[in-house]
Here is the input.
Amino acid sequence: MEKMGDLLDMLRRFNSLGSTKEAATEVFGWGVEDVLIKEERPGVDQVIVRFYNGQIIEARHILSQEGVVEFGEEWEFRLKMRTDLTSTLRYNAFYSRYIHGKGYLRIDIGYVENKLLRKMLEDFYIPRMRSIYKPIILEYKGLFDYDFFGIEVSCDHAEAYYSTVRQGREEAESGIDDVISRLNYLCDMMKSEKIRKDLKALDEDLCKVLSILCPTTG
Here is the structure.
């Protein structure tokens, strides 16, 4: 196994062997913690394989022929690495590019129904989050032109990840050792005392605002 695209072949074999924990252990050769398969939407399953070494394969299995024709492949996946960051508000920070190729930071916090809270997040939370990640965002740059690394953080877990691998995309040509090395590096980098301190202060300020805008009923 040398390239990320080889994992696509392994996912196909894993599926042919029944998509069990035992099949994952046989195919991938890493100690398998658990396997979770659930329907993402009609015709598409989400397949998550967690390994004891902290790595995660988060895949989408396209089941319908129409979907395979649309995507050109029945499997796609992201390789992720667990880390111990947490955040009251779930966010996804990742490296992206302008059309002319210059890299920049993107932060996605998903849909927020409360309009006042959304405004506060856009005007206060996201700019402060950007200021924390901006000095290190180049470390999330990919190995080729359009691939990238990112980190997803929620209230109980966090995972650094590599952009989606699909047959025919440049991610499939990345060396798996190179990707794993970068994920390990990013997880270690996020243990920086300054980064942790700044993120903790931001989270504490957010909790104060949430207690005012979204008080719990008792």
Notes: The mean pLDDT is 90. The chain is about 40% helix and 25% strand. The chain has one domain: 4-210. Strands lie at 32-41, 44-51, 55-62, 75-83, 91-97, 103-108, 149-153, 158-162.
